[in-house]
Amino acid sequence: MSYDYKIEVRDLSTWFGKKKILKEISCYFEDNSVTAVMGPSGCGKSTLLRSLNRLNDTIGSFRMSGEVLLEGENIYAPDSDVYDLRRRVGMVFQRPNPFPMSVRDNITYGPKLHGMKDIDELDNLAEQSLKKAALWDEVKDSLEDPAPNLSGGQQQRLCIARALAVDPPVLLMDEPVSSLDPISAGKIEELITELKKEYTIIMVTHNVQQAFRVSDQAAFLYLGELVEFDKTKRIAEAPSDDRTEAFITGRIG
Amino acid sequence: MSSQTRQLEQDQVFKEEIPPPEDGRLALIIRYLKMQARTKRTLSDFLFKILLAICILVIVAPFFMVLVQVLSVGIPEVFGSGPGQGLEFFGTFPGPGLEGGIRNAIVGTILLMVVACMIGIPLSVCGAVYITEYAKPGTVTSAIEFAADVMAGIPSIVFGAFGFAFFVDFLHIGMGLIAGGFTLAFMMIPTVLRTTQEALKQVPMALREASLALGATKWTTTWNITIRAAIPGIITGILLAVGRVMGETAPLIFTAGNTLGVPTSVTGGGSWVASLPYTVWSYITDPREYLQAKAHGAALVLLLMVLAVDIIANIILRKLTRRVV
Amino acid sequence: MSQQIKEDLSQFIRELRSAKGSARIDLLGRFGLLIPALASSAVIVLILTFLWYESALIFASPEGGMGIIVNPTWNPNRDLYGIAIFIAGSFMCTILAIGIAVPLGMAGALFLSEFCPHRLRGPIRMVIEMMAAIPSIVYGLWAYLVVTPWIGSVLAPAFGVESNGLSLLAGGIILAIMLLPTIVTVSDDALQSVPRTLREASLALGATSTETARKVVMGAAMPGIGAAVVLSLGRAVGETMAVLMVTGNALQIPFSLFDPTYVMTSIITNQLGYAFVFPLWRSALFAVALVLLLMSISFTIMAKLFIRWGMKTRGLR
Fold first, then answer.
1. What is the ipTM of this complex?
2. How many CB pairs under 8 A join B and C?
3. How far apart are CA B235 and CA B197, in angstroms?
């Protein structure tokens, strides 16, 4: 099937109960690019991100209208397979959340769910995923240790490896470094630039400098509205909206 | 897949096609089932949830079956108007045949609770105050906590055997109100001590410091400020413990004796005391049908008392947590 | 511990000498509280001492000795006091009850915590909490009048067995029903304390909600659930009235689910009332109580170790 953009969002509105969180948002995300979604707290950044893999569905009182097309198909269509969708759209969370099991089991959890049984294949996949997440050298001798014993930065890279293990073309990241120390955060930023070659990455961030460092295009949300959506470079040079400028210069946020 | 997702999908179905009114619901159900059976994984997801729902039904079913059994025979006894029923059931001592009620058991249970509380509450509340407010965290504190946890797990018949060996035999108190009450008091200790300790820990440090900063001694601060702030939690603990020991039969068999009247003295043969659980036990194993009916009545009274205490405790607890959060 | 008490005491006396007025009241009050604190925990020592003191006779006598624990013949008329059948009876009843209650209870807790419609959760929790409060004698009444006749007239004939219903099976069922509220509520609490973000991580990998519940949430809640199971083991062994009324109390080791059995708590309840004047008989019954006590203490310790171990290996706080 041919499609224009990896993910296209058309007139997306969402509600929690009576409260409207996102207001008629339309945007698109291209192959092999990093998009930064910025905005002050409570503007709906995370909601937008979680609408892209239908994780909001698990929260009571969630409603939505509009369309989200992944490779040309509406993921909210009644006959769409939400489990396959979530395999194709990986997610990394704000705080590292490794499962309370061994490092290896964390990685192989996803592939096993989707039917991979061969042990050698799983081991190989674990190694590949950990290498992609730049964690292999640190944990190759302790694959059977409980994952929660790793350091915070290692845990977050493990979570990235875990998401990569099911081979998703799209990777969502919800403020992936905000809970980490600067050195770990730096490592993960480097990793994101590396991963861009293979994946479409959409990253929510609170940190303007970080957004400018790693992203190709940027979206700026304010109170549920998409205020600005353009190439990062352009926004950094000359934001077209006052609110964006205010956020970038630190007056709101 | 969560119920919200399903809801969402159903909503969309509604939007797309408005089915004819008669078989609309059926079509929707069929469509829903088809959706669940789409792949092996969604099907097993669906079936697993149904299996779990059946399990919860099996778990709660005995509650209603017990209730039906106790109510069906017990209600005429407690609320009826025949001989030995209704007010007579509560107000008179056991008589011959159908006549007479269970006044001895109701009075006995209340007396036992009073004795148990008089001994058990001061011991465990003071113990909890000592370990939270005075003792430095260390071996003494953890030893007392550990002792309480172990005591909570001791079988009730072991308390009964101990009460018999210690109070009745060794201390020569003999069976009756004192021996039975003390045995129940010991059973109350772990619950009251642990809940009091929790309640005291919840009191903010700033409250104590504010009092100490005004020049109050530790002693006055503890009794006037800390305990007062923790009182709802302490009462909850006491009620939970009372609810638990009120229904105990085994500890009383060898310590409290039994009587058709009320205790007439504090020690000796006159202090033998009846109780609701003991009455249920001795009547239910009797082949005479009217005694079995009275056992149901006594069980209903006991059940109502225990559940009332339990519900009050939960209400206080809930109010309390709301206030703290 | 005694070292620390001694230190505390000497420090206390030093302080009391130097204190004045209200400070002296303060210190006296502190000492006054130490006594109930120690007394409330001394109860356990008292219980242990007395049960040991009472059962010492049988353990020391030539008729008894430690061998009574493995000796299956109980016949007070001939001064034979083997308690093995009671231990075996308790053991079998407990295994049966745990075998029913643990899978059922975990399934119930999983439903309650993960899949229960929001509106039903409160009422179901309330019913289960009320079940925990129902006195054992009331369960006994119901089991004696409803469950045992049903086993005798429906279940046993269905399996081609002759039984009056007073059986190991009846004991196991009523015990399971009494254990379930604790297992469900404690497991539900353990499941609820698993962070939401773990569930989301699993869902985001394309897991269904039951896969998430079984593989991630259950795994994370295991230490709590394990502790609930161990604690209920202790309760099962120690349960008295309901089991007494439905197991038939026959001096034999049951060979089928429909055979009657005799458990440790029942023998004490049934015989202490007339055995207390016969020293050896009485002492043997206290030996049973001592075994029960030691078992319950070890279950409590096991549950505590379980939680500590679980927290360590899972890296949870």
1. 0.90
2. 274
3. 12
